[in-house]
Amino acid sequence: MLYASPAGRAPAGTRPLEGNASRARRLRTAPLAGLAVLAIAAVALATPSSNFSTVQISKGLFGEIDVKAKDEASHQVKLKTKGDSDVYIVENTVAPGGYSGWHYHPGPSLVTVKSGTATFYDGDDPTCTGHVFEAGTGVVDDSVDASHVHLLRNNGTVPLVTVTFQIVPAGAPRRIDAPDPGNCNS
Predict the structure, then answer these.
(1) Residue 150 and residue 121: Cα distance in Å, rounded?
(2) Contact criterion met (CB below 8 Å) for 113 and 133
(3) pLDDT per residue rounded down to tens, the chain (186 residues)
(4) Cβ partners under 8 Å of residue 100, min gap 6
(5) DSSP label at residue 22
(6) Positive or negative, the Cα torsion across 139, 84, 12, 27?
(7) How many CA atoms lie within 13 A of 98 on its CB side?
(8) Which of 5, 44, 49, 85 has the fewest CB atoms within 10 Å distance of its CB?
(9) Following DSSP, what letter does each residue of 143-158 receive, concatenated?
(10) DSSP alpha helices (H): ranges in the chain?
(11) How far is the CA of 103 from the CAs of 25, 32, 144, in angstroms?
């Protein structure tokens, strides 16, 4: 079953106040404005990427998602959102020695390594140990706030290509750049 948000419909669970639609609109957009302020502040202190490019393959607006799937072999999938979401599919290409710069996302990402070898570094790891993922494997990136930043690096000798599925709050930036956490010499 597909879920979508009809254009112009208020997010589920919200109701405009009678006679005060503009106040209701401000209440719905205040959290996004807060994210925008954080994003602007992060850009001022951000660490730049190097030899890293992103191509947005698709973006779709979804209403609330509530999916529960279970097959006879005990495989289960649960996915639930509150409010509208933007769902992205992006392809990242990283040249040998290239990296993403420190950043986080306001929602989870499912990263598939299409080719090459990806090394992820977590900003809250005091040892800054790289987590290596070969082509054909994947990783769930759940660094959804500024306290858990990460960096993707290509430590290999061939280009690294990842394809990523991301769910973020509707209207929020897909990626938020962050300052170097100071504990990694990656």
Answers:
(1) 5
(2) yes
(3) 222 333 444 444 434 444 444 554 555 555 555 545 444 444 446 889 999 999 999 999 999 999 999 887 888 999 999 999 999 999 999 999 999 999 999 999 999 999 999 999 999 999 999 999 999 999 999 878 888 899 999 999 999 999 999 999 999 999 999 999 998 875
(4) 49, 52, 92, 94, 151, 152, 153
(5) H
(6) positive
(7) 19
(8) 44
(9) --STTS-EEEE--SSS
(10) 21-45
(11) 29, 18, 10
CB 128, CB 170: distance < 8 Å: no
Q: Nearest-CA neighbor of 106 among 79, 141, 158?
A: 141
Q: Would you state the structure tokens that stand for residue 35, as one six-digit string?
A: 């994210």
Supply 43's token pair: 């850009």
Tokens 């960096």 correspond to 151
What are the chain's domains? 21-177 (2.60.120.10)
Which pair of tokens denotes residue 3? 């879920």
Query: What CA–CA distance (Å, rounded) separates 101 from 97?
Result: 12
Task: Please indicate, yes or no, whether the overall pTM of this predicted structure exceeds 0.85.
Answer: no
